[in-house]
Amino acid sequence: MTEIDNKEILTLLKSIDKRLEDIHYHLSDIKREMPKVPYYGDMLQDVVKAIESRL
To answer: What would the pLDDT profile of 4-49 be if each residue is shown by its tens digit?
Structure first.
């Protein structure tokens, strides 16, 4: 590899690192903004119990 190739690869890796950091913060923001809901497994279990209690 030439020195130019190494510099291009380094620049590309720094760009990828920056974008991954941005994605990480965006995902944290999204998670914080989502409404708090019970886990789906617990919710499904509650639905099953409700149906069973009606039978």
So the answer is: 788 999 999 999 999 998 888 888 888 787 777 666 667 778 888 8
Amino acid identity, position 13? L
Whole-angstrom Cα distance, residue 24 to residue 31? 11
Say if CB 14 and CB 8 are below 8 A apart: no
Listed in sequence order, the residues at least 6 apart from 37 whose beta carbon sits closer than 8 Å to its beta carbon are 43
CA dist list (Å): 14 to 6, 7, 9, 17, 23: 12, 10, 9, 5, 14
DSSP state of 34: S
Q: Give the Cα separation of 22 and 5 in Å (integer).
A: 26
